[in-house]
Amino acid sequence: SGEVKVRYYAFADSTLQADNLAADVSQMLRTAISERGAASLIVSGGRSPVAFFEKLSRADLQWRQVSISLADERMVDTPAGESNERLVRTHLLINAAHEANFVPLRYVITESVNGLADRNRALQQLARPLDVVVLGMGVDGHTASMFPGARGLDQALDSDAEPALVGLTLADAQERVSLNRAALLDARCICLLIQGDAKREVLERARAGASPTELPIATIVQQRQTPVHVYWTA
Question: What's the CA gap between 182 and 13, in Å, rounded?
Fold first, then answer.
């Protein structure tokens, strides 16, 4: 299959965007459960997905069969406001979805334990290929924690690497962990949630051939392996 598999869905407002993404994701999870007995969902942090999380949390499906983890995480204490885990626990693992199995990415950095290896082992409980990966994108073209200029970006983007969780260090020295390109693409479907004309323009530049080193989202929208559904609203 030689062609890039990117489809756009445009919505009049962010409520419709969230409602449609929640309906589509819950349907994909339902299908996975009925066909394979288990479903796996990867989500991202930020402000954009909150309405989607809250809508999805009420979906009528067998949440006990669903395993949820994150595309990336800031290496901060979970109570800290910046933690993606906190966002998911507050807005998604509630209502019907409180029965889902959540796999955290954060670990305590110690010399005696290889936390990254431990989290990579924990992620093996997710059904592969992942059923749905929900990503966002920044105006700088980053997705997950693959930021332009981050230390570890080349490793995260390596198309020959095995699917894995990798460490990245941002320009401001903030430590992150992120699923690498191979792990994000090891999915039946990627849903990209974006808002605003500025982000759409960045996405078009990425699709038109920008280098993934410059705009890391390019590694998602230029590939020919995994369908990408873009949910966009102005």
Answer: 32
